[in-house]
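Exercise 7b. Backbone tokens:
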């Protein structure tokens, strides 16, 4: 039996952490788990308590309470279909009819540094809960896309665990509370979705008499079906201090005949602001209404599983449990992967990119276990994930309409990542063969049973994506066991690290004193003017509020109004001056070097007092540096033109992945899978400079977000927009949602030049460019460099390339001659020391030579070793070392086939020797080179090499 969770909370201020207990489901009393399903619909109560006894703080809101709309439940017009899309729509319409504003799902990439991915429906409302931004609506309802990977090992093994899921939620911001939340949750469950009341159980917090009374007296739930539960199950808290409160849950019992067993399971103070956060997992309700045994067999996921089944040539319903689990993993992971890539996350080795990469690799590994070869359609060199992703995209229309428009990028990214990983898997197979050979050899030497270490099996699994099941199968064929206990230890360690990172929503205040309590939002005047009179509302020094600051001190100035642009949308903050007029009081001057925006809309002007004293309440003149603002405007508009040009040249599916608009340059990151060719860069520059020459007047409008999107405006990735947005348009070229500053005409940009284009992560490219004054400065600097080069080479500008190529050819010839001379000298030295070789082994047939060759370079050392191996003949082993320069060591090991056959490998032998010289290296069994940074240790390292080589050969020839 599992349930709908209602969590109440009442807003508290000084402690602000929103907890991991907003998890999708949590069992509230002991049951036989096989007969249960938990669906959470919750109302949380922020019951606040003070950090210090002497101080209480409250969470307040500036918005007025909106009236409740009349409740209408019309059974005749109700849509009783049970498809996943229908359940989502019915939930949203249910709460919309009760005065809730339907808001869109936020991106899976949250605008919140405390979490890696969107893990809860309430995350987009975190600033409202914190009181850092005013509420826009009193009631809201959403269908939020969520990602959680802390329980990834349970995916496919249980009926309900997922990495990707939709959380249906309704929220009250200081409006209704427990009574309405509980009543509506019951109506939703029993009337809208028609669940039989005699199959439902309710849990409340042990001391929450109010919720108990509402459930029993007003809703009519029998006392015996209401369970009081303790803090572990029905009390949500963020930690020792923070918002907290009792939870209430509704449970649906699949098998009432099996019964259930009850379990026995500071100072709190209610505050004024009462909020509601209800969460219902869409997949779980679909399971109940569609009458299927698990979430995976609902119409939200099963079509994806069916596609995977066809590629694997198996029947899901006829398959064994292991195969079903593998198909479920693919069905689940592909949903997460597609929506993550659609929201701009590309596979990489850090952060969000690592999450999607791990999911892709897990899906590929699972597909191989299912026997899917290549693309599953006869092409062994193809990829199968894109085939399945097409089904996910087909199902996405009601979840996220933008997914379809990004289909080509999603498919290409999946294909590229899968094929790259298949190569890694193949390397893993080779590594496994080598590991097993070493284990078997060592076991023979020590006369023990061969066993592969757990850490080695985990290395194959974690780094190379090699399924431990395949490792076990291959090892068994070689008669090798695997230390599975050691493997599980490594697995558990990784799991703990994964669960500890970014799996809770953190709401906290950074300072004891919140400026948002005493300072109102800053009025921004910078679109219309670069200078304005303002009043100093607050001063901060080292984060602490002060009344005045004197000359020489760094300070943060808070004004009631400002022409200064605060850093946002990639554009850096303005520079300028804040001054008081000279008069009776001493004149003061603050040099502003940065402007940031605090939570809410308070502009923080960061600078240094150059003259006088500044005080709170003083009237000042705030003036932006006009030249630097113009540079920022030029680069910001040029960034818009660059995005438009990229879409024209390399494809519309490319999208922005980050940007920087600075005074001296612009930087633009975008999704693309390869370096841009020279002709593409020239075409992009040509387009932009052509648009600049057209002298097109820009148009700026404020309009509803939906209207802007319908008009084709491009939204900045990761940005959060309100209902009204500012649209900046270069007619016929570009239209973007943007709050930055821009030129009036493209002619103000004057010129545009790309400086560099490079890759910064897998699938992410970066262009740095200059425009306006920075463009002129760049061109002038390059021209000066060319003049100096022409003067030095004694040629004209057009002859520089030919002259440089000639010089390079001449240099190449000279270097080859020098290298040949060095090699010849090294071979001569080798001929002189060849007689130092000595016989080793029981038969005294193996000749060993370990020598130092002074300052011979690495290439010449190789020539010397080749000569010595030929001269000494098989079997022979040669170790050479040298110090070719200050702080440099070169080492080389060369073994003939007769030595390699004894089990010695040059690559493995030379590595430990190189470590003695502060370096490392490796290579093939017969030939390997290494380096180091400690020449002073070379003689000892060679002595160690001589000792080890003699010992090993003597042992193996005994």
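Sequence design result:
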């Amino acid at each position: 039996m599992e349930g709908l969770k209602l969590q109440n909370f009442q807003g508290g201020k000084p402690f602000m952490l929103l907890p991991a207990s907003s998890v999708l489901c949590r069992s509230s009393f002991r049951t036989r788990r096989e007969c249960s399903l938990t669906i959470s619909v919750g109302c949380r109560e922020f019951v606040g308590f003070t950090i210090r006894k002497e101080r209480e703080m409250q969470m307040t809101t500036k918005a007025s309470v909106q009236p409740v709309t009349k409740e209408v439940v019309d059974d005749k017009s109700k849509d009783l279909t049970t498809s996943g899309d229908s359940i989502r729509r019915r939930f949203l319409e249910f709460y919309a009819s009760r005065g809730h504003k339907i808001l869109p799902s936020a991106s899976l990439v949250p605008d919140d540094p405390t979490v890696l991915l969107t893990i809860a429906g309430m995350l987009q409302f975190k600033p409202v809960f914190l009181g850092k931004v005013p509420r826009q609506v009193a009631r809201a309802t959403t269908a939020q896309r969520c990602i959680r990977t802390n329980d990834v090992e349970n995916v496919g093994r249980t009926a309900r665990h997922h990495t990707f899921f939709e959380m249906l939620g309704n929220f009250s911001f200081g409006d209704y509370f427990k009574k309405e939340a509980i009543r509506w949750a019951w109506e939703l469950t029993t009337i809208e979705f028609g669940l039989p009341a005699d199959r439902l159980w309710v849990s409340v917090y042990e001391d929450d008499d109010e919720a108990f009374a509402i459930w029993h007296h007003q809703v009519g739930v029998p006392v015996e079906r209401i369970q009081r539960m303790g803090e572990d199950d029905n009390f949500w808290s963020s930690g020792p201090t923070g918002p907290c409160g009792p939870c209430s849950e509704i449970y649906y019992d699949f098998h009432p005949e099996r019964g259930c067993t009850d379990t026995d399971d500071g100072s709190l103070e209610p505050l004024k602001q009462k909020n509601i956060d209800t969460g219902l997992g869409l997949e779980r309700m679909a399971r109940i209404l569609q009458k299927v045994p698990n979430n995976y067999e609902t119409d939200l996921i099963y079509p994806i599983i069916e596609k995977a089944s066809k590629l694997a040539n198996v029947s899901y319903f006829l398959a064994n449990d292991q195969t079903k689990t593998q198909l479920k993993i693919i069905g689940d992971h592909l949903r997460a992967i597609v929506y993550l890539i659609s929201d701009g996350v590309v596979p990489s080795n850090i952060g969000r990119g690592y999450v999607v990469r791990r999911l892709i690799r897990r899906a590929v590994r699972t597909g191989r276990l299912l026997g899917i070869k290549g693309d599953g359609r006869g092409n062994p060199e193809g990829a199968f994930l894109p085939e399945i992703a097409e089904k996910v995209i087909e199902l996405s229309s009601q979840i996220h309409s933008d997914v379809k428009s990004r289909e080509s990028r999603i498919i290409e990214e999946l294909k590229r990542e899968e094929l790259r990983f298949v190569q890694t898997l193949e390397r893993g197979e080779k590594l496994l063969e080598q590991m097993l050979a070493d284990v078997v050899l060592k076991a023979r030497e020590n006369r023990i049973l061969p066993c592969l270490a757990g850490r080695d099996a985990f290395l194959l699994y974690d780094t190379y994506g090699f399924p431990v099941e395949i490792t076990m199968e291959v090892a068994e064929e070689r008669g090798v066991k695997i230390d599975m206990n050691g493997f599980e230890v490594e697995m558990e360690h990784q799991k703990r690290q994964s669960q500890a990172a970014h799996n809770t929503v953190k709401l906290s205040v950074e300072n004891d004193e919140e400026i948002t309590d005493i300072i109102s939002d800053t009025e921004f005047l910078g679109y219309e003017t670069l200078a304005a009179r303002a009043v100093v509302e607050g001063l901060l020094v080292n984060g602490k509020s002060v009344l005045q600051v004197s000359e020489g001190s760094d300070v943060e100035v808070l004004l009631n109004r400002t022409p200064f642009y605060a850093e946002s949308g990639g554009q850096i903050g303005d520079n300028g001056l804040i001054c008081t007029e000279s008069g009776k009081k001493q004149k003061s001057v603050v040099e502003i070097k940065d402007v940031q925006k605090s939570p809410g809309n308070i502009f923080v002007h960061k600078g240094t007092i150059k003259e006088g004293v500044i005080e709170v309440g003083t009237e000042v003149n705030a003036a932006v540096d006009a030249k630097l603002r113009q540079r920022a405007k030029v680069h910001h508009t040029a960034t818009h033109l660059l995005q438009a040009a990229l879409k024209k040249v390399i494809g519309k599916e490319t999208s922005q992945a980050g940007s920087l608009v600075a005074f001296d340059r612009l930087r633009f990151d975008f999704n693309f899978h390869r370096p841009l060719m020279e002709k593409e860069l020239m075409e992009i520059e040509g387009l932009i400079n052509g648009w600049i020459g057209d002298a097109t007047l820009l148009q700026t409008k404020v309009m509803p977000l939906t209207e802007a999107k319908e008009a084709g405006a491009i939204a900045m990735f990761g940005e959060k927009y309100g209902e009204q947005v500012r649209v900046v348009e270069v007619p016929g070229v570009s239209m973007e949602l943007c709050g930055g500053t821009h030129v009036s005409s493209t002619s103000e940009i004057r010129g545009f030049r790309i400086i560099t284009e490079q890759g910064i992560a897998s699938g992410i490219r970066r262009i740095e460019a200059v425009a306006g004054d920075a463009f002129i400065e760049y061109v002038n600097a390059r021209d000066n460099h060319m003049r100096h080069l022409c003067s030095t080479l004694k040629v004209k500008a057009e002859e520089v390339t030919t002259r440089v190529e000639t010089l390079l050819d001449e240099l190449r010839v000279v270097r080859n001659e020098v290298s040949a001379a060095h090699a010849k000298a090294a071979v001569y030295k080798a001929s002189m020391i060849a007689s130092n070789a000595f016989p080793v082994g029981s038969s005294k047939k193996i000749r060993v030579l370990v020598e130092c060759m002074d300052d011979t370079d690495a290439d010449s050392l190789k020539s010397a070793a080749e000569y010595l191996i030929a001269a000494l003949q098989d079997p022979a082993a040669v170790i050479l070392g040298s110090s070719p320069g200050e702080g440099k060591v070169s080492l080389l090991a060369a073994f003939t086939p007769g030595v390699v056959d004894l089990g010695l490998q040059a690559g493995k032998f030379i590595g430990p020797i190189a470590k003695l010289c502060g370096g490392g290296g490796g290579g093939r069994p017969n030939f390997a080179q290494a380096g180091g940074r400690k020449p002073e240790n070379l003689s000892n390292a060679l002595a160690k090499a001589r000792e080890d080589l003699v010992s090993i050969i003597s042992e193996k020839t005994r």
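Instructor comment: Residues 1-79, 238-243, 261-272, 500-513 have pLDDT under 50 and may be disordered. Residues 407-446 form the longest helix (40 residues).
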